[in-house]
Structure formats: structure tokens, C-alpha cells
Fold each of these.
Amino acid sequence: MLNVQICVGSSCHLKGSREIVELMQNEVEKCGLENEIELSGSFCTGRCNRVGVTITVNDKVFTGITVENFREFWNENILKALDAKGADQR
Amino acid sequence: MRRIFDTKVQHLKYKVLREVARMAWADNLNETTVLDIPGIIVPGKIPTMRCCVYKERAIVTERVKLAMGGDKSNPNVIEVIDIACDECPAAGYEVTDSCRGCLAHRCEDACKRGAISFDHNHVAHIDKSKCVECGACAKVCPYTAIVNRKRPCQNACKIKAISINEDNAASIDNDKCIACGACVYQCPFGAINDKSFILDVIDLIKRSEGNSKYKMYAVVAPSISSQFTYAKLGQVITGLKKMGFHTVIEAALGADMVAYEESKELAEKGFLTSSCCPAFVDYIRKSFPELAPYISHNLSPMATISKYIKDTDSESRIVFIGPCTAKKAEVLQESVSPYVDAAITFEELQALFDSIDLEITELEEGVLDNASYFGRIFARCGGLADAVAQGLKERGITDFELKPVSCDGIEACRAALLKKSKNVLDANFIEGMACIGGCIGGAGCLTHGEKNKAEVDKYGKQAYEKTITAAISVLK
């Protein structure tokens, strides 16, 4: 299970965390990953960025996620992390 | 000096809190140093408040005890300082020497109990064995010669939890008291006070070692928008972080979560009373126990958001900052204490800022934005009912017609609960707010101005999210 926390603290919220939450929820649903990814909100991780939203995947913090670079983030840090985990289990 | 508080009583309380906090920050609060505080607050030999400086200092000593948490053997968070109680006259309605002995005798006609008689000078007298203190005579006297000598504390306490003890001082019945703080704010001598938990907050901040041992979260009530008006809200947020909080979160986000859940619970059960105002909930439990099953099962917005924070960060420490003295009692309850570590008021926050000489008007503006318009307007009467209506709409529940009654103040709550207990209430949702105006009338507010409701509405409209679902999208 991949634990994905999207920051909904004031700073990230104003930079569009809701849009990111929506994109993430849609993507999880589309790929049928409901049992692989646990999606939740978090509050300030103390890494407020000038642009974009902070997302914590397991214990790793990523900053600056925007609607524009979401696809790249999803492919690089979510799908690959899932693949790596899958490989471990095999 | 800028005017921060409504009354000098609040200012005195604040000065005591500030001195206690100063010593605590400096690790210098002990049995010896604490004895210096009365002399710091009441210097010199000329009394300014009471008969002599010695009595003034003795009372300050009692205030120091309250600032440090008060009497541990008394479970109530509201306490009477016996020696500060001025033993106000408590005779009820009395005819004063303004009575001119007129011919009309409207007072006599107005009295349904026949309690008014006249002496040989035609001056009115009230027979106390007949009088029921209804006040009808006072209303009709053209010379306003009849006054009500009711104690301000008893007048403030609409649920009649205050009586007068054998020493003629005010006494609180803990079985009735709901800790709303109305008496605290209304006592002109400052003889009734809420216990303070600022020392717990200072201790939590210190032991967090700059948020490295654990993170400190401040959960602030939406009524903050009508407070600290001498500065910008964003500066208050920055001030909290400078004082040692990792981040600041709106209790209003908890309100969004509550509104969303409560609308569902309401549609399922068909009748509910709100659970946001701890004094209202306590009032139902203590005075209308037969209606207790109707209390919404949702935790309050404060507890709901705090639970969420603890779920995501189990090491977190959470301090609620609001206008409310009853919240102090709520966080001591078993169902809430695991989530909220301490509750303080805006009054106490002002004292904490000043105890570290933090001038918030000089700070840059931080941001505070988690909740929707609807979560934010919980702070004023009627807001909760609006939010529940919105919750029903956003959930697409159309087969349930919301009929709310928004009770402004505990007397209105009482009226609605009485009707419900007799099954004659034409409503299916009671929004109960113990304070007049809602939370913005709370006893722990710095000010209680006319403009406060408008400030809360303005703050609500500034919310980035316009719907409840949007604000809680990931939290559901």
C-alpha cells in the first residue's frame, strides 16, 4: 500500500491542492488502484514552495506539484513506486 | 494606548496572565517569584480599584492562581474569587426615592400579584412575599423609579446556576453551570473567572524544542476574524508561528466536515440538535436529559479537525484558540481529550503575544485558508443551519426538508428545547448557541462589537473554496 498525502494546509490549499486532489482521485479510479494507494490529506510539512502543492509519498516529500506537471509526477513517483513495490514482492 | 479590550476587568486579567506567562517562558515561575506578581500589578500605596492596595494584591494573588490553572479540586473551569465578589445588592425589584408618589399608579395596575401598596406619602412599596420579580412595574413607571437590584452575575446567568452563599458571595452550582462564561464577562468586579491553561501551552511549546520533538498545531476558531482588529489576520498567523507553532489550521475546516456529516445524520434521524457549542450540549445533558439522544453524534468542529490532525500526525500537539470558555471544559471530556491538548481564549492569546513582546502589527502577513465560506460562518448565529442546508444540497439529499431553528443565546435555546420536550416544536434541527450572536459573543473574545458579525461574514466570503465538498475533498 502506497500512502499518498496531499497537503491541504493554508499555503498549499491556496496554490491548488483541491485540483491536485481531484486529479489524483480521478487517476486512482481510472487505473483501479484503490487498493494500492491510500489517499489522504496532511497539513503543513514545513516545505512550503513558491509554486505548487506538497505531496508526501510514504515518507518522501515532493514539492511544487501543479496541474501542469501532475502527469509527470504521477508517472515518475506514483506508478514507478508501485512498480518497484510490485517487483519487491515478486 | 490602543484599546484592545472592552473592559478594565479584562485588562487586569490580561496583565496577570502576561506576567505569569513571562515568568514561565523564562523558566522563572516558582513559589517565590510568583509572590512578586501582586506587587508588580499593584505597585505603590494608592489603591485604584478597591479599598486598599493590600486587598487589591490579595485579589491579584487569586487571579494568579487562576492563571496557573486554578483550583484543581473544583472540576468547573469557571470559578468565583470569593474575596473579589463585592457582594452587590441582591434585593430584586425595589422602589427608589425617585418615586414621586404620583396619582396614576401605573405600577399598581401593572402588578398582577397585588404586591404594590402605597404609604401615607403615596409612595409605592413592594411586598416581597408577593413579588415574583417580573419587572412589569418597573417597565411602566414614568419616573423609572423602580429598579432591579439583581446581581449582574445572576442576571447574566440565564440558566440560574448562580446563587448567593452564606458569606453573601456568588456561588456557582456545578450541576447546572455550562461554563459559557456569561458571568465572567458580566461581573463588573471581575470576581468570576475562567481557569487558564496557558502554562500547559507554554510547556508544550517549550518541550517541542522548535517543533523538532513533535509538531505544535494551532487550531483557530473562525471568530478570530472579528478579533485582533488592530492588526491583520495574517499577522496573527505569523505571530502564532513565531511563538512556536508549526502551523495554524482553521477550526472552520472541521466545521465543513461536521456540516457534511451532520446533514446526513439529520436526514437519517429526522431530528437533531447541534453539537458544535459545548455549552449548549452541556445544557441539554444537565437540564433536558430526556433530549440528550437527539444531540448530533458528530464531534464539535474543533474536535473533528483535531482528530483528523492526530490521525495524520500522531505525535502532534494541538492547541485550540477561540472565544469560548466552555471549550476549556470540552477538552477535558473523555471523548475529546485525546485530540486536543489545551484550549485557550483570544484574551489569553493576546497575553501570550505580549509576554514575549511580540508586536504582531510589525510582522509580515501569513496565510490562513483551509475552509469554505460555510465552515467559516459557523462563528455567528444562523451559520450552522445555513451550512447544514448546504450539506444536504451538496449531498443531493432532496427528500428531506430542513426546518431549522437557530437559537441565539441560551434563553432562546431553552425556549426551543422546552417546546421540543413538549413535542410542540415546529422544526427538525435546533442550532443552539449559548452566547448571544453565536461564538462572536463568547466570553473569551477581546471585544464584543456590533461589527463583529459583518467581519465574520466578510471573512467567510474571502474563503477560497465556496462549497463544503470542495473544502473537504480529500478529508472525507
Amino acid sequence: MSESSPTTGQGFSLRRGIEKVIDFTEPAVVGLIHLCGWSAIIFVMAIFFFVFKESLPAITGLEEGAVHGEVEQLDLVEFTTSPKWIPESAKKPTFGILALMVGTLSVTILSMVIAVPLGLGAAVYVSEFAKGKPREILKVLIELLAAIPSVVWGFIGLVVLNPMLVDMTGEPVGLNILNAGIVLALMSVPIIVSVSEDALRAVPDSFREAGIALGANRWEMVYKVLFPAAKNGLLAAVLLGIGRGIGETMAVLMCTGHSVMMPTSIFDPVRTLTATIAAELGEAVRGDMHYHTLFLIGVVLFVFAFIINLTADLIVKGIKVQGNE
Amino acid sequence: MSNELNNPFAATDQERQAREKEKFIKLSTQLITWLLVIPVVAIIVFLVYKSWPALSVEFITENPKVRMTAGGIWAPLIGTFFLVLVSLIIAAPIGILAGVYLNEFARDNWLTRFINLAVVNLAGVPSIVHGLFGLGAFVYFLGMDRCLLAASCTVAVMTLPVIITSTKEALASVPMAFRVACWNMGATKWQTIRTIVLPNSISGILTGVILQVARAAGETAPILFTGAMISSRVADSGWDAWVPYGLEDRFMALSYHLYIISTQWQNVPESFKFGTAAVMIGLVIAVNSISIGFRIYLRSRKKW
């Protein structure tokens, strides 16, 4: 790196001059770096602020002259407990997100039931059993799984999985909780695999050696030594998978069947919180109750995601502190 | 057992059982892993097979015609390219400097912990909430209206945490001894970063940044309300075909285009939908393999 070191050059040179100017601006640059360092905090706050700001009129009441002509206020009890979501009704619009929440939860839970065993199994295999070339190939392919855009996953659910499910289950339409659950499972597996693999790798090798030295074979070592030692990291992996499921938009929009109802089986179509925003915000008039309520759903989603990520982060930090001791 | 009498080291029944179990677990986890990977390969093969009738040079270079019943995907493809480019220009400087701050300046205190927490949370915000933020902040509050710039800003905010994380990783791989040596020559912190740390990590940083932003460009939810449009007139040839959108214009994007033709429009030939999906996956594979190849090249060139 000698050619770019600050002391190169003798007498006057353009380079030296430029270096001097750069050094002169050092305080400004360092200040800029600090500012950028805080940008993550600024943006998280900004996101909450702006989404909350747009949703506020729904809670405090809309001014007169709004689209429906009178002072409107969102009934928060109805908002959280009513399964009826009829935003564009001319007589009496109803904004209840219970069915949407149940939709989000049912799809997420089903996807986790599929993805957690698969993800943990794959993580154990990739980190403890696989070696050499196959291991590298598997890691690249799993990474590729994470890179496929969600709209392509939605498309796959729509045109590939949909007819397959119709054939297999005999239901008239294959767009339902099961379809979205499978697609979402495939989407959240990579994050579960990579986070739990990290957790398994974070266990010191001395733990593995001690286990093997005591006469355990590989599986006994994984089950009795690694799982207890890495359990927090594995839990965090599951939580991050859940966060992915709750926040996913396009794939569930295309695969769930998109009808507001309380599901009774996994073959029922549902609608999720995210899909509702994506499908309806384009048509909602700005300043209308419908518009502000959609932003309120955004606030709900933000808070859900925040709690899940915070918990996952605290759990991971917890294991790191223990590991150092 | 007579076996034990003859050979004290022979496996007992219990040990044999444990070994059987280990074999079973190993096989089943292996099966699970391939079960995850095979669908991906199968899907890609299936997409290419179904889109084969449509795939041609014209499919890439021609604009959609007659509600996507003829022509190709040039307009959305170039729109996605500009979305990536503008997002990169906005997000890369902020993200890289933030990574520099976290790896080089930040002390181990509550503020740093707070920033790291914010990065994790920013990464976990659902993409549709990013879209709402973009609509509230850039489109309405800053008055940008729905346009390429507003959509790029939204995507930029969304990619910020991943850029910060990958920059931090690249910087952390520069050995501490390099910095210490430089400080001992009397260089200040910024001189050290500028002349030693960044030159030794910049290629790693850029690989990570481009990969992440290209991935984010596949997202549909953030651009849904901030600038993407269903169809726009794009010139078929000449300069205007290469730069069809200004920062103030609404634009077509590949991801939104696929959503529209597969759910909203009728009479779009099957092969066109599959073709669009295949091109998207092709781009993802291309960007990923270039970055993997580059990573291997960098590792081989490393001097320490």
C-alpha cells in the first residue's frame, strides 16, 4: 500500500496537495461517518414515525368533509376483535382484522411446522455430518433458495403447487393455507438453516471433543452436547423464521386464495395482514378511513416484527455472554 | 455373550444400537437436506422447460405489446436495472460509512448496542411496511410523488441493514496488525482507514453490497405504491430505449410485471409468464454466481 500512503512524494506534488486537503477535512469526514453510523436508528424511528403518522387520523377521528361525509373514528375494539373486514361497504364499512390476523398466524404456524424440522435437520447435516464438496454445493444451493424473489415463489405457488394440490386433495381450488404454508416454509428454511448453523458452529470444538472422548457417537454428541449448548441460537433461528413468515407479502398474496374468513381447516383460503395492505392500498383514497386503517395494520405488523426481532436478538446475545465465560 | 469373552473390544448390543441410530439420523438429515434442495433445481428446470417457446433474444429486447400478449420484457427489465442502480447510489455510501463506523469507531457501549439492535430490527421490518414508509415519507411528506426516485429511496432504506452487515464483515477480515502498524507510523484514524483498511477490503465490500441490492430489487412490496406502474410507453430503439425513465418518472419493474401478468391480466400466454419468472431466476443465479466466483478469486489473492 506504499503508493497511497500519506507520506509519499517529495517537494510539491499534486498528490501531496490532495492528501493535505483530505487530511484537512478529516473532522468533517469523521463526523459524517458517525452520522451514517447512527442512520440505522434514525431510519427505524422514521419508519415507525411515518407509518404511525399516516395511521393516526383513524384513531383520533377524521375531520369533517372526509369521503363518507361525517366525523369518523375507528372503533379499536371492533378493529381488534371483529372478524369482519368490509372496508368499501357503502352503508357501514367494518374494519376488523381478527380474521386477517388468524390468516397470518395460521399460514405462519403451518409453515413453521414444516420448516423447523427440515431446517434444523439440514443445519445439523450441513454443519456436523457433511464434508468437503457436497457440503459446499449444499450451502450454495440453500443460499440460492434464499435469493429467489418472493413474487417468483408466489408464481410457483400459483401455477405449480396449485394444480398439484387440486389433484392430491380433491379440493376445487388449491390456493389455501396449505399452499401458502408450503411456499412460506421453503422461503424461511434458508434463514433457519443459516442461523442454526451459526449457532451450532459457535459451540466450541472442545465441547465436541469432550463428548466424543466420553464415548458418544456423532449423533449422541449432537443431541446431548450441541443441542443444549446451542439451544438459544436454535430458538432465535425459529423466531427469525416466524418473523419472515409474518412479514412476507407477495407470496402469501398470490397463494392464500385471498378471501377474508375464519379458517376451519388447512384447505380453507385465508387472507393475511400483509396481503390486505398490498391488495387494497392502491385503491384506497388518501384521507379516507380505509387508507388510514391500512397504515394502522402496518403499525401492527411493525410492532409484531419489532418484538420478534428484539426477542431473537436478546436470546442470541444471551448465549454469547454465556459462551465467553 | 461369547463374543465378549473372546474379544473384550467387541461392540456391545447397546453400542451397536447407538451406531445404528447414528446411521439412521445421518441418513435422514441427509435426505432432508436434499429434499430442500431438489425442489429448487426441479423448479428451475420446470420454469425453463415451460418458458422455452418464449425464450429468445427478442423476448429480452422487445417491449411488451398488446397487454403482454406479444413482444418481450425489455421495459420492465431496464426499469429493474435502474431501480438497482439508483438504490445502490443512495444506499451504498450511507451503508458503507455506517459499517466503517461500527467496525472502526464504535466502542463497546450502550450506543453501539443500540445501533446494532436497530440494524437487526431494520432488517426485520416487513417489506410491505417499508412500502408504507416510502409512501408516507418520500411520496407524500417529501413530495416526490410516485416515481423512480421514491421507489429507489424505499429500496435503499430496506437494503441498508444488509449493506451495513456485509461491510462490517469485510472490514473485520482486515487483520488488526495492519491498523496498529499504520497508527504507529503516526497516521490518524481516518488516514488509516482511507489508506490501509478500505483498500484492503473494498472489493469484498462492493461484492456484498451489489449482491444485496440486486436481491432487494426482486422485492415487489416496497415499490408497489412508490413508483412501479403496470405499463408505460418505452421507445423500441435508440437512446430512449436504453434510458427510458427519468428519476421523476414512474417505471415498470420485472417483479411487479410478473405479479401483474400472473394475477391481473387475462390472455397472457403461459410461456410469457414462465419466461418472465425464468429470466428473474436467471438474473438471481447470475448475480449470485458472479459474487461467489469473485469471493473465491479474492480469497486466492489475499496476502495474509
